[in-house]
């Protein structure tokens, strides 16, 4: 190849790299501005929504029993009218509402508020109480994987999902900080497994912590309408439902069981999870639930 052709190819390559780098820079700034815009919208929304002393925040890492807890608390604190179109009509996810540019809804006290936010996102002055639902991280990973596969990436492989799960450490960070509770928030820690297998006992703890006086009928409703069979049958009230022209997300309520992670993970994957868990989560978890045990006795 003659020198003129070589120079031409080198020139094209340099020009291509230049435009590619410009594209990456623009994308980075676009993402930054999007996050900034969302943050501003959320702050404005919170000002309109306001704070109350008896607000109850249900905080979880995604796929950890959030909706289940919403249904329990909704029936314990209201007359349990099930005519709502979606759970967010009676127990809002305020960050999601702010991203969608929705107006805050008026609700009677106590308000049941959903959140997946990290601990650092709540100022120390935040009013209200918190219920943190803690689910085994391997179970969370499996459930989250199936949701992503069903909603967005039908060809997603579990190994590839776990690679991101371990790399960003999102579950480990979220869980660690909420269990440590350095700001001293009033938090009730609830294990997802107990919420599934010992629901009546957990309801007793929830009632005591929230200082509410439910009736026999409201407890019966909480048990009935938070059952897996009811929630699965009425999934449109809980899961994300896109426009009819798009696929329906009909696996939001998937199995409602615990222990799936140990069956899904390979031995190598389990070892990797346990190593990270012991490094970041084990001590805060032990201390948080030991404290819960002392309070309950």
Describe this structure in a few short sentences.
By secondary structure, the chain is an alpha/beta fold.
Proportion of residues in helical segments:
55-70%
Average predicted local confidence, pLDDT: 85
- Separation of the first and last Cα atoms: 85 Å
Structural class: alpha/beta
Number of helices: 13
Note poorly predicted spans: 245-254
Q: Would you count the extended β strands for me?
A: 4
CATH level 1 class label of the largest domain: Alpha Beta
CATH homologous superfamily descriptor of the largest domain: P-loop containing nucleotide triphosphate hydrolases
Biggest sheet features: 4 strands, parallel
Q: How much β-strand is present in the residues?
A: 5-15%
Name of the CATH architecture of the largest domain: 3-Layer(aba) Sandwich
Count of structural domains: 2
Shape assignment:
globular
CATH topology of the largest domain: Rossmann fold
The sequence of SSEs as H and E is HEHHEEHHHEHHHHHHH
Strand order of the main beta sheet, please?
2-1-3-4
- CA-atom Rg in angstroms: 23 Å
């Amino acid at each position: 190849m003659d020198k003129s052709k070589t120079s031409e190819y080198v020139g094209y390559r340099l020009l291509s790299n230049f435009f590619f780098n410009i594209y990456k820079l623009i994308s980075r700034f676009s993402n930054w501005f999007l996050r900034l815009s969302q943050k501003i919208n959320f702050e404005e929304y919170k000002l309109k929504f306001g704070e109350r002393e008896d607000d109850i925040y249900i905080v979880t890492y995604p796929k950890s029993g959030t909706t289940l807890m919403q249904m329990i608390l909704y029936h314990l604190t209201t007359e349990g009218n099930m005519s709502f179109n979606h759970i967010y009509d009676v127990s809002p996810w305020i960050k999601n509402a702010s991203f969608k540019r929705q107006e805050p809804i008026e609700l009677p006290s106590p308000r049941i508020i959903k959140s997946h936010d990290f601990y650092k996102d709540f100022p120390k002055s935040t009013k209200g109480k918190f219920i943190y639902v803690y689910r085994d991280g391997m179970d969370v990973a499996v459930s989250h994987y199936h949701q992503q596969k069903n909603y967005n990436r039908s060809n997603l492989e579990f190994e590839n999902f776990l690679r991101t799960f371990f790399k960003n450490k999102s579950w480990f960070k979220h869980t660690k900080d909420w269990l440590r509770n350095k700001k001293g928030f009033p938090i009730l820690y609830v294990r997802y497994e107990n919420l599934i297998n010992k629901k009546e006992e957990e309801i007793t703890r929830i009632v005591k912590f929230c200082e509410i006086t439910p009736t026999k009928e409201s407890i019966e409703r909480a048990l009935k309408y938070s059952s897996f069979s009811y929630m699965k049958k009425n999934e449109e009230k809980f899961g994300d439902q896109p426009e009819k022209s798009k696929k329906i997300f009909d696996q939001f309520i998937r199995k409602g069981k615990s222990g799936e992670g140990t069956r899904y993970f390979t031995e190598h994957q389990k070892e990797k999870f346990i190593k990270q868990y012991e490094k970041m989560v084990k001590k805060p978890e032990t201390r948080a639930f030991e404290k819960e045990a002392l309070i309950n006795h």
